[in-house]
Amino acid sequence: MGGSTENSAFKKTHNPWALGRTPGGSSGGAAACVAGLMAPLSIGTDTGGSIRQPASFCGVTGMKPTYGRVSRYGLVAFASSLDQAGPLAKTAEDVALLLEAVAGHDPCDSTSANVPTPSYTASVRQPLQGLRLGIAREHFGDGLDGEVDASVREAIKVFESQGATVRELSLPHSKYAIATYYIIAPCEASSNLARYDGVHYGYRTDEKAMLAELAEERKVLEGAGDRAKLEALDTSLVRMYRKTRSEGFGAEVKRRIMLGSYALSAGYYDAYYVKALKVRRLIREDYDAAFKDVDLIIGPTTATPAFKLGEMNEDPLAMYLQDLYTVSANLAGIAAISVPCGISKSGLPIGLQLQAPPFEEERLLRAAHMFQQATDWHTKRPN
Amino acid sequence: MGLSRDEVAKVSLLARLRFDEAELDTLTTQLSQVVEYVRQLEELDTESVQPMAHVEDIHNVLADDVARPSLDRDEALANAPKRDDECYRVPAVLGE
Amino acid sequence: MNDKPYEIIIGLEVHVQLQTQSKLFCRCSTTYGQAPNTQTCPVCIGMPGALPVMNRRAYELALRTAVALNLDIPEFTKWDRKNYFYPDLPKGYQISQFDLPMSQNGWLEISDAKGAFEPKRVRITRAHLEDDAGKSMHDEAAGKSDSRIDLNRTGTPLLEIVSEPDLRSPQEAKAYLTELRLLLTYLGVSDCNMQEGSLRVDGNINLHIDTPDGKVATPIAEVKNMNSFRAVERAMAYEAERQYEVWCEKKIKLGDKPGGHKTTRGWDDGQQVTVKQREKEESSDYRYFPDPDLLPVIVTAEQVEQVRADLGELPAAMRTRLESTYGIDPYDSDVLVNQGRELVAYYEELATASGDGRRASNWVQQDVLRTLNEQQATIADFVISAASLADLLKAIQAGDVDNTRAKDVFEEMLRSGSSASDAMAKLGIEKVDASEAESLCRELLEANPQVVEDLKAGKMKAVGSLIGQAKQRNPNVNPGEFKDMCLKIVEIM
Fold it and tell me: Would you tell me how many other CB atoms lie within 10 Å of the CB of residue A246?
């Protein structure tokens, strides 16, 4: 979890463009291995931007398909109503190839959409005629890095030179997207991660040490005659759960489990979770309205290029705010892609995000391919 | 208004997690920050908005009632941290 | 129904396993009694990445039951996660229904054939679908502190049926359960086998006590671990007594602090007492939220009406119809209907073919049911067809065979599988010719002048010895007809 791979249970990943920087996350490994030419294609999962942000930071093409387009069966669930697996590759053509292989209805995933999968490889090279692009005012506000802003505006000109029309629009609730996301995702995560409890599979704490620890605590409390604390002392089973999970999960995961458990607990459910679900609908309605007038929404994938490893470690909220432009697509369940559109003066890739209505992956791929025909950002490689 | 340390401790039991004193302090601060932040949703009037639990307009996804073979027991128990020939084993659930 | 100055208030929560082939969210078999952990898969073990897909049949059975319980069926229903940690709950949550259950606000009518209480409608709050947990076994015998977990049952479809606190006595509670079980059996939605855990009951009980200051309510107790309807009846009776005693001693009312909160108690069948169970403060914070892995179910009013039309005749309607069609008493219709649809069909065929509903009812209740009981069989396996038994009943009506000998004929039919007439022939039963009977009668009266005297003096019992003698001479003599004939002859003597 998180946008930097620093919360990985294994190792953190370095950005091939600048080893001191993050490749983005959580699918930073998937993006870095494509950027570093270790693999031609990779699959990531995107709950709030975890494919697109690393694709942007690593200078590769990465797509979050429409919710329901790719089966979630077999995917370790983080936030089930937001999770979607998708491809990362150097080009839109390669993304089309992988998406065609993994997309489609799966009767084992109830939320998998039973809609036909077009042949993306057959259509990806066909340019879109009369493409109508929308620029969301909210994607160009405070906090957007100047170089990113310039690259994205340059990219828009590229589309215009290919006959696309551009209009400005508003996604008025997008400023609430992060807050909405950081309620819904932790709530679902707190429940999805309950199964890692050391009973049926996976890690379990050292039981002997755990029992000894409990016995010791009991002795101390008995000695002190503290009846209230004795009553409240964990049973061996509860202590097994708590030690197992505290030892097995990393800090960010535990933080999110805590946040979700709190927001779902008695007395807070309506104020947080139900409220977030309502705002989620408003965010979706913003998109539905916008897509009446435009075919795609174009903007930056992230506000800045890759940040330094370690930069956000002590400030989870700052890390969460990184997802500003990406989480809305997950909340609304729509499709989105990140395409390389520039390199900063310090030599870091910049990503362009295209967002499309549900199940319009084909449109995204064709637009991305048009852009990649006119530019060579996707061919740039780290030194 | 954020979370109190007591609330954080209570939630940690609910979530079956355990933190030492220093961790509890850090968490209280961090969670309070996030909770403060998400409370900006309060400024929106959502009285007449239906909650959206699913983005898809799909319903009645039902499977036929046909029993299929299960896993072999040894396969099912293969990943158990503690087991015997037939069952998973855990510290006594009695006293729960 | 009690002489104590209180009213008993009971509401019941019943969990019923639905009779499906496969589990609610995966296709593992639901067969009972298999070796531990042989009926599990990644979905019901809660493996990472496994996802639930709802069983259509389970939903249909639940809907059928809800309609039969007169519950309102909302168009939209969804599934929620109930989060708690327990080793027999591998996902860390139960998939249940919280704020939008598939059905609510229904009722079930109960009555007592012997009139122990007035017939009443017990309101049903809701019925909803959820998945069952596995089993935790406490390995105390082995002297170890471990528990063993079997997940075979995990994911079996359960229907939770919650009643309003409308029951006013342990007898009513038992009657409610009996009627509910009968209904579920008629619907074919569950086998309701309590031994196998297909039907489980928790009872919420408290008292409304008359005091000089008006009515007061005692703290509510939820009683668990009741393994039979009898246990429910006894546990409720015990609990009422206990609460009254506690009230007399401590005067703690519902809602008082401390002591007035709801408690959980377990029924100890050996000791015949309820025992307070340990509770944890945080244990009831289940953090419900809509399960993102499952989509809502939408059902139209037309679909609900179709289900209603296909329910078939239900027990309450069947009792009334049997009483009016065949002229039998509520007690008899109750016995018959309680035996299930197949037996009622047998009875109806018998009653119609024999033309005597009451006699048919007696024979079914006494002879047929006794035999089935002895043979541990069901009516489907019963040797004597309703048509054959009807022939025997007609022979009784015609006076061709008396009731006592008819029992022998029944045994013979049972043994050989022959028709009534063949069995009667085999036993040498034939109607005694009227003139033959009359001469036997005269002969015996002549030989027994004292009997004639007694009869003339109005001592009618005296005729019994003559019947006995007649039967010895000719076992086919019909005692009733013989008696009438004797009296007629004596009258004109």
Answer: 18
Question: Quick one: tokens of A224?
Answer: 């002190």
Alpha-helical (H) ranges within C398-433 are 403-416, 420-426
C173 within 8 A of C232, measured Cβ to Cβ: yes
CA–CA dist A69, A50 (Å, integer):
17
Which chains does chain C touch, 3 or more C-beta pairs < 8 A?
A, B
* A182/B34 CB distance under 8 A: yes
| Helical segments of C218-259, H only | 229-250
Query: Tens digits of per-residue pLDDT, A5-45?
Result: 887 777 889 999 999 999 998 899 999 999 999 999 999 99
Identity at A339, one-letter amino acid code: V
Asked if residue B38 is part of any domain, the answer here is yes
In a domain, B86, yes or no: no
Q: What is the pTM of this model?
A: 0.91
- Of the partner residues B13, B49, B90, the one whose CB lies closest to the CB of residue A240: B90
Q: Total domain count for chain B?
A: 1
Using CB atoms within 10 Å of the CB of residue A311, give its burial: 0 to 12 exposed, 13 to 18 middle, 19+ buried.
middle
Unique residue bearing structure tokens 């066909």: A126
Residue B82 lies in a domain: no
Is B24 a domain residue?
Answer: yes
Contact (Cβ atoms closer than 8 angstroms) between residue C295 and residue C25: no
d(CA A89, CA C105): 56
> What does the H/E/C string look like for A143-196?
CCCHHHHHHHHHHHHHHHHCCCEEEEECCCCHHHHHHHHHHHHHHHHHHHHHHC
Per-residue pLDDT reduced to its tens digit, A129-141: 999 999 999 999 8
Inter-chain CB pairs, B–C, below 8 Å: 125
ipTM: 0.96
- Which residues of chain B lie closer than 8 angstroms to C41, CB-CB? 70-71, 76
Neighbours of chain B (3+ CB pairs under 8 A): A, C
CA C12 to CA C433: how far, in whole Å?
Answer: 64
C63-118: pLDDT as tens digits = 999 999 999 999 999 999 999 999 999 999 999 999 999 999 999 999 988 888 99
Query: What domain range includes position B18?
Result: 5-42
**Contacts B50 to A, Cβ<8 Å:** 278, 281
Helices (H), chain A: 28-35, 52-58, 92-102, 120-123, 146-161, 177-192, 207-224, 227-232, 236-248, 251-264, 269, 275-290, 316-321, 327-332, 361-374
The residue with tokens 């007399």 is C248
